[in-house]
Amino acid sequence: WGGTCVNVGCVPKKIMVQAAEYGMWADDAAAFGWTGMVKGEHDWAVLAAARDAEVARLSGIYGKLLMGAGCQVFDARASFLDAHTLDVGGKRITAERIVIATGGQAMKLDIPGAEHGMISDGLFTLPALPRRVAIIGGGYIALEFACLLAGLGAQTEVFYRASLPLTGFDQDIREALPEALRAQGIVMNAGIMPREITRMGEGYSLALSNDAACQVDAVFFCTGRKPNTAGLGLEAVGVAMNAAGAVIVDDEHATSQPHIFAIGDVVDRLNLTPMATAVGHALADTLFGKNPRRASYLNVPTAVFTSPPIGTVGLTEAEAAKLGPTDIYLTRFTPMRHTISKRQGRKTTMKLVVDQASQKILGAHMLGEDAAEIMQGIGIAVAMGATKQDFDRTIGIHPTAAEEFVTLRSRTRVVGEVQ
C-alpha cells in the first residue's frame, strides 16, 4: 500500500539520501575538532534492511487506514467492461462513480540492449552497491540517484541530452548544480546519450553518441515516467487520453465521462504525492462531503533531494518574464559549515522572483543545505501573496541560511517587458 512514493519512490530514496550524507559529515568532522573519527566502510545490507523495514511499516499503516475507513479492497487488476462496470479479477463491480488513480511507471530508452538496464525501482532490490554506475537522464530522479550512489561510494556517471540538467527548473539553479555534483566526483556528460548497451563480463559497456564507450557494473534508466493507463479499457468506455496516455480531466478532475474521475500521476499534471493527496481529498469533499472545492496547482513547493538539495516554489525567472517586468534578487555564498570544513562545491544559491508592479513574490528558488525544509515555510508566504516588502520586514533567524531570503536588498537584474 502507498503506491510509488512509499514503496519505490520518495520514502526509500530519502532514507538512502540520508545514509549517503553521513559519509560527508564524517569526513568533515576533523575540521570541527573531532579527532580519530573514521568514516569506515558502508554496510549496504544494514541500510537495505532498515530501509525495507520502514517501507513495510508505512505501507502497513496505509493498509490499516483503508480497512479502518471501511473500504472494501480487491487484490486484483481492474479494467472497464462498460462506463459503470469493472472486471476486477473476474468479478463484476458496478459503481455510480469511479476514480482512476493508477499512477505512473518508469520508462526505458528504446535502444539496443535496454534490457540490461534497470528502471528506478531496481535500486531498491540491489543486493550490493555497484562499483561503477551509469545513470541515463537529467531529471530529478536521475540526479538524486547520482548523489546517493556517489555518496555511498559508487563511481557515478550521468548522461543527459540537454546542456544543463533539470529542464523546467530555474536557470540559475540549473547552472549552479553541476558544480556541486562534480565536486562529489560525479561525472556529468551533457549532450551525450547511450546508443547501445552490451554485456561485458560481469558488467556492461555503453556505446555513446560521441563515439566513446563507458564500462559500468549497473545502468539505471531515469528517462521519465508514463501514466498507467494501458489495459484499463478506457478507450472502450469513452475516457479521453492525450498522446502520452494521460487521462484528460477538467478542473474538477472529471474525465470525458462525467461520472469517472482521475487523480494523481495518471493525469500527468503535477506528479507529486502531496498534490495527489490534496486532489483526492478535495474530490472526496466535493462528491460526498457537501463541501465542493478544488485543490490548487499554483505555488506548490517541491524539492529535489540532491546533495545539496533544491527547494522551489512558484514561477521561474523565465516564466515570470513572460508576464511582464520582473525584479530578480539573487545571492550565492558559502554556508558557515563549509567555511570551516573547506569542502568544495557546497555553495548555496538563493533567489527571489518578484513582480515589479505589485512587488508580489512570484517564485523562490534555493540550492543548498536544508533547502527542502526552508522552502516549505517560504511556500506558505508565496501562496498567501506575500510581497518583497513583507519579506524585508521579517526579522531573520541568525545565523542561518534561511535569513538570506529576508535580507536580500539589492536587485540583481530586471527581466521581462511591458505587455
Key descriptive features of the protein:
six-stranded antiparallel β-sheet; Enolase-like, domain 1; FAD/NAD(P)-binding domain; five-stranded parallel β-sheet; 30% helix; alpha/beta; 419 residues
Explain this structure to me?
This protein has 419 residues and is α/β, with parallel strands linked by helices. Among the domains are: 114-223, FAD/NAD(P)-binding domain; 302-415, Enolase-like, domain 1 (2-Layer Sandwich). Helices cover 30% and strands 23% of the residues. It has eleven helices and 21 strands. It has helices at 3-8, 10-28, 44-68, 140-151, 171-183, 273-288, 317-321, 336-341, 371-383, 388-393, 404-407; strands at residues 78-82, 85-88, 91-94, 98-100, 104-106, 118-119, 132-136, 155-160, 187-190, 194-200, 203-208, 213-216, 218-221, 225-227, 260-262, 302-304, 310-314, 326-333, 348-355, 361-367, 413-415. The strands form six sheets. It has a six-stranded antiparallel sheet, with helices on both faces. Strands 6-13-7-8-9 form a five-stranded parallel sheet, with helices on one face. The protein has a three-stranded antiparallel sheet with strand order 1-2-3, with no helix packed on it. Strand 10 and strand 11 form a beta hairpin. Helix 2 runs antiparallel to helix 3 and helix 2 crosses helix 4 (140-151). It is globular. The model has no long low-confidence stretch (mean pLDDT 97).
